[in-house]
Structures are given as structure tokens and as C-alpha cells.
Amino acid sequence: MSKQYETVIGLEVHVELATKTKIFCSCSTEFGGKANTHTCPVCTGMPGALPVLNRQVVEYAMAAGLATNCKITQRCKFDRKNYFYPDNPQNYQISQLYLPIARDGYVEIETDRQKKKVRIHEMHMEEDAGKLVHDEWEDCSLVDYNRSGVPLIEIVSEPDMRSAEEVIAYLEKLRTILQYLGVSDCKLQEGSMRADVNLSVREAGSTEFGTRTEMKNLNSFKAISRAIEGERMRQIELLEEGKPVVQETRRWDDNKEYSYPMRSKEDAQDYRYFPEPDLTPIIISDEWIAEVKAKEPEFQTEKISRYQEEYKLPRYDAEIITNSKKMADLFEQAAELCGQPKKVSNWLMGETMRLLNENNREPEDIPFSPENLAKLVNLTEAGIINSSVAKEVFEKVFAEDVDPEQYVEEHGLKTVNDEGALREVIEKVIAGNPQAVADYKGGKEKALGSLVGQTMKAMKGKADPAMVNEMLKQCM
Fold first, then answer.
1. With contact defined as beta carbons under 8 Å apart, do 119 and 158 qualify?
2. Fewer Cβ within 10 Å of end Cβ, the chain: N or C?
């Protein structure tokens, strides 16, 4: 590659709002459910059925706009975006083109290289389409309208990102903000946060944008990173060969790690937008904005500072824990219950993260209660169970949210502090391992570890390792 190239990336992020009902009707938005059971004449586009706007959708969109430093459009309205596709029952989508609810915002991101602001061009409300299910056995496509009419906000960034690292930092920041607000769970695997990547390349130093492509079908941060790298290389290869980059929408196949064209990129006029005749404009008062602003929670940045000050946590711990609202809430509640914030942090940073990774789960999926984590911390700190038993019990707490106190009692896992019983076991271990005893007396410290291990095994792990250590030394 003789020339140096710069990648220019902008994102369109669709976020499903966490309202109980759809944007223009009272059908449930719950994920899953039997096909076409969360539907009515409005969200299946029946003739004569009229939309009624869900006020909560407007509030959630305003909250997201304010938290990302956007200006709220105080007189905004809906438009019809016309397109014909089987998963779109009315043959149009109700969206916002001309007067979106929020504009001109930004979020601040931090990567290894720098801090920077990624500008948000606009944020608009719209309804989701249904879902096509392709049946290869029957060679046909079926449509499920459960998702049709689920409220979305689309967050359109400026082309301010230059690498996959910056894109992931931006998406993580957005996800954290939206989860803290409670406006969306942002689960990529369930489609409640979806990102389309607009990407072009240009020679380093050039101010002109290259021809961009849009990539769809990206449902994990790893897929987004791979897609960016794959598309960047594809475009550079075309330019190096003197071939043009075609403006089009491409679909990323994460298994093959390749994107292929879906259709040429439409422009706004192709959708024949016009004002939605069945919905009146939305008038947003200063008072309403102030009311939404006043409900803002403590966000991650403030929590990190407070955790360092109030709980004396290292910054690293505070950043990891506050990266997920679920984990931050769990930490605060458990710390309050047991009064041991650093110990709670250790369990979350260590065993919890390990088990989440092993089970391929997100922090939002943590299944156990703060009460049970606090009880486990108390049991360990009081010396009722030792650290290896605590880990064994925690695995059970993680899997089934069992009550650790009850579990320890029922399974006889309490640490044995009976000196007489322990001395008896230790004397047997010493008598049965003359070589290890001789090695230890000859200055080999490792030999003590072997004797401790055998004693713990004989005690079924229910002794205090420090006490075993001490008593072995006394008895030899």
C-alpha cells in the first residue's frame, strides 16, 4: 500500500425504547412472544386504523437528547417515509425527517489515544418494522408483526470517528447513558440497539470525503469492529486498483467476515417523505423540558468520582463497576447491606466477571440479588466459611441466587474451628508424610504447602488455612 489512508465513520444507531406499549397503539413491546400475538389493527396497518402517540416515547426521546447535549426541537412533527417491503404493513413508516425531536448534540469519548467529542447531528423518533423469517425448508418468507410499531429513536452522528476503537467507545458511552436513563436496555443480541456503519476512506491529509457505504446487520461490538476493518480494507484495495467505490448498502456476514451489496443507497427523495396527516405536531414547553431534565440520574462520570471518594475504590474498579447500571446498583445495595464496599467490589471484579465471561453473558444479565452477595461477604469476613468454600458457594449464588447462609448450613460448609479435631488430623498427616516433614525442617518451604493441602483435603476444605499453617508448624 503506497499511500496512507484515513477512515471516516459516522453511525446511525437505532435504539428500542423501554416503554411497555408501542409508539402508536397499546400493544405490548415485550421481546419474544408467539409470532403475531402482540398486534392490533394499528400496528398491522389495517385500513382506517389511526395512530395515537405514546407520551412516554416523547419523554424518553427528550431524556436521551438532553443527556447527549442536544437541543430539543420544541415544535416537532412526524413524517411518512414511503417504502414497500413485506415487514412494513402500511407501506410507509412514521418517522421524523424535517423536524426531529433533538439536534446538534455530542458525547465525549475516551480512547487510549485521546479524548474527543463525537457530534450528534440529530435524534428522531420512529416506529420499528416487523420481522421477516426466512423458512428454507418451505422456501418461503413469513412475517412476524410483534416488533412492528415498537418505538425507536435513531441517533445519527456526524462523520467524526476515525477507527473501530473510537466507534466502540462511542457506542459504549451511548449505551451507558441510555441504560442509566432507563430509556432502553440496549441489548445488542436482542436487537434493542442496532448500529449501521457509514464508512468511507480518503487519502491522509485530504479534506474531501470519499464515497461512503452503509453496513447493516451488525449485532455485537465484535462484529462492528470486524466489519469496519473489513470494509476499510475493501475500499482501499478498490482505490489502489484505480476502481471506484460504489455508494450502496452492504450486508455484513460475520461468519464469512465479508460484506456484500444489498442495494444502491437511497436518498431522501426516494422515500417521498411528506408530513404525517394523522398526527398533530408536538409542542414541547420549557416546563416539560425542565421536568425531564430534573429526573436525570447520577451518570457514570459522577459515580466514578463518588465511588473513589465515598467507598475508597481504585479508579479502575469504579470504572468497571459503573460501566453497567445493573452492576452499579448491585454494588451500592450490597455495600450498604454489609458495610464492606471493597469486598463487594472484589467479588464483582473477580468471580462475577469471570463467570459472566465463561457463560458469555453481559453484566445486565447478573442473576443474583444484592442481599445474597452481602450475606456471602459477611460469612467470609466473619470467618464462618473460608475463601475456597466462599468461591464454591458463590458459584451456586451466581447460578441459582441461593441464600448463602442457608446453603452453608444445609451443606455443612462452616469452617471447623475445633482445635482438638484439627490437631488430630494434622498429627495423622505429619505421621503419614515423614519425607515432607524432613524437607520442611531442612528449609524447603514448599513442603509446608503440600502438608497444608493434605490437611485441607482431610478436613473437606472446611478448615481455616491460616490456622492449619500455624498448627502444622507447632506440631512439627
1. yes
2. N
Give the residue with greater pLDDT, 257 vs 157: 157
- Portion of the chain with pLDDT greater than 70, in percent: 86
Q: How far from each other are the two terminal CA atoms of the chain, in whole angstroms?
A: 71
Q: Kindly report the number of other CB atoms within 10 A of residue 189's CB atom.
A: 10
- Cβ atoms within 10 A of the Cβ of 78, count? 28
Residue 475, classed as helix, strand or coil, is helix
Task: Give the architecture (CATH level 2) of 419-475.
Answer: Orthogonal Bundle (1.10)
Phi/psi region, residue 287 (left: phi>0; alpha: psi -120 to 50; beta: rest), is alpha
Neighbours of 129 (CB within 10 A): 21
- What's the CA gap between 244 and 241, in Å, rounded? 9
Sequence spans of domains, the chain? 5-288, 298-410, 419-475
Tell me the one-letter amino acid at 285: S
For the chain, what is the total number of helices (H) and then of strands (E)? Answer: 16, 16
With both helix axes pointing from N to C terminus, report the angle between 55-67 and 164-181 in degrees, rounded to the nearest 10.
Answer: 130
Residue 23 has a CB neighbour count (10 Å cut-off) of 27
> Which residues partner with 123 through β-bridges?
102, 155
Asked if 267 and 81 touch (Cβ cutoff 8 Å), the reply is: no
Q: How confident is the model at residue 266 (pLDDT cuts 50, 70, 90)?
A: low
- C-alpha grid cell, residue 177: 447513558
Task: Identify the pLDDT of residue 276.
Answer: 95
C-beta separation of 330 from 370 below 8 A:
yes
Task: Name the strand (E) or helix (H) holding 88.
Answer: none
Buried b (16+ CB within 10 A) or exposed e, 361-384: eebeebebbbebbbbbbbbbeeeb
Please, which pLDDT band fits residue 77 given cuts at 50, 70 and 90? very high
* Between 421 and 201, the higher pLDDT residue: 201
Q: How many CB atoms within 10 Å of residue 91?
A: 11
251 CB-contact burial (10 Å; exposed 0-12 / middle 13-18 / buried 19+):
middle
Q: What is the pLDDT of residues 146-160, one digit of tens each?
A: 999 999 999 999 999
pLDDT of 138 reads 83
Cell of 55: 407520551
Please give the order of strands across the beta sheet that includes 92-95. Answer: 92-95, 79-82, 274-275
Q: Which three cell numbers stand for residue 214?
A: 452503509
